[in-house]
Automatic annotation (TrEMBL), chains A, B:
InterPro entries associated with the record: Acid_phosphat_B-like, HAD-like_sf, HAD_sf
Protein's UniProt name: Acid phosphatase
Keywords tagged on the record: Signal
Coiled coil: none
Transmembrane segments: none
Length: 283, 283
């Protein structure tokens, strides 16, 4: 295993050393490590199957028991966030789209191969033209089908743009995830309250649906309340009231490639009292 | 969210551009992206809490029902691998150690800060001297305690070296994971059959225990049978008979930093028919 580490480390350094590439013609020698993991590994596929298996099993258990009263959606209130109520609303499960329901293989290939910096125009062109270059996240198609069979409606809450609503629904359908309708089962950036933060859309969805599960790859796909430094957000995710939700009503997919899972500095990542010095090292 | 992507991408490129550093005194500007994610993010903490919550919930359900007949350990046989039998053996759950039960913060800090290539001697010094520089994986201490309360014994099956058996048990105890005894509840590299592959040790454990769950960060922590190219291993992890095990009897922890989750090439990672070209790109 440690041998594999050495090879992997060497590979990712080699990848780093040659990127960013000045043009598409000079593709780096190796795929960036985080993309090797998310898009190329059995381990990331297993993490995804695990999240979707746990989600379907938990939803099945909840609808087999007494009718749920509490939504998986937790909304800001005076004091602590409060779970929305289910009443007699129809059952739904709410998912982010990118790197949660689908993998953006086409865009990420272009990103890695070109080494180009992020560009909102390029992302918009991808939303408009990439529908045939995505695949479903491992486990997602089977889970969406199982939910529909149980009478639970999958709803997508994404920050893709309203301008590409049709192409976004097309990408989901081509990936085998079924049919989604803007404003009904597909919510895009700015819907409900004009914001990119998702609590406003979650509030609108919770008004019409009894949401039994949330799925996403970013903390913001679950609540806007986990804020602060990376270290503070990490502690909050592992503490009450959030720690007990993971794998029970909130289901997270792996994404080390982009997003709020990146950005921690040395002090956020490695506490001072956990730093080791190799006395015989540094030859 | 895409804005965060841009920042994260810039950050990881900056990190790449300055590593490897020639000496410990020249620490890179930023933490490698995969370490930011695994050791510094709320998202990776949530993935870990999710795996441990799902494991404890599934074990609780299994011991509340009819006595399980099948072990979570699947062993090679003539033809397809076969689940070991439980008989009336005592209940156990088997875990890998590194990046499954504990996070090697001290070692990984040294690795990232020094930029040194992998060196078996440095890793051996870490096993012998790093017991106070590790932390438990988020969710692991609560899960190990819950398992013991249910009468399920946590067992560690790791490729750490027999030479450091005492220090390895010490590291687990200091992380709050409890007491482990070499040969009883702690299995090290080479135990049982002299190999680093773990099926031999799993066979020895299954002979004495009814194993209700396996936990690990590498596919080899579950079975030695998933072999081949990264793409072949990825397909196998998402196909019968393995796909249904994730989140039910096999529980995987995230690790984009090292191991068999890394190493896929361009063709393994990005199928030719899923590569997108930005026609207006490459200015």
């Amino acid at each position: 295993m440690r041998k594999v580490l050495a090879l992997a480390a060497a590979a990712s350094l080699a990848g780093c050393a040659t990127m960013p590439a000045p043009s598409r013609s000079a593709r780096p020698a190796v795929v960036p490590g985080a993309m090797q993991f998310l898009y190329g590994s059995a381990e990331a596929a297993a993490l995804s199957e695990q999240a979707y298996n746990a989600l379907v099993d938990n939803v099945r258990l909840r609808i087999a028991g007494p009718r749920p009263s509490e939504s998986a959606i937790v909304l800001p209130a005076d004091g602590a966030p409060v779970a929305a109520s289910c009443g007699d609303k129809p059952f739904a499960a709410v998912f982010d789209m990118d790197e949660t329901a689908i993998l953006n293989l086409g865009y990420e290939y272009n990103d890695a191969a070109s080494g180009a910096a992020f560009d909102a125009g390029r992302w918009a062109r991808w939303e408009a033209g990439g529908a045939d270059k995505v695949v479903a996240v491992p486990g997602a198609t089977a889970a969406f089908a199982a939910l529909r069979t149980m009478g639970v409606t999958p709803i997508i809450n994404t920050n893709r743009n309203v301008a590409a609503a049709t192409e976004t629904a097309d990408a989901l359908a081509r990936a085998g995830l079924g049919s989604f309708v803007h404003g009904e089962t597909l919510f895009l950036k700015g819907d409900a309250d004009g914001k990119s933060a998702k609590d406003g859309r979650r509030r609108a969805i919770a008004a019409r649906w009894c949401v039994l599960a949330l799925g996403g790859d970013q903390i913001g796909d679950f609540s806007d309340a986990l804020e602060g430094t990376p270290a503070a957000r990490r502690v909050a995710a592992s503490s009450p009231p959030y720690a007990a939700r993971w794998g029970r009503s909130w289901f997270i997919l792996p994404n080390p490639v982009y997003g709020t899972g990146l950005g921690s500095g040395w002090d956020d990542t490695f506490p001072a009292d956990k730093r080791w010095t190799d006395m015989q090292g540094a030859k």
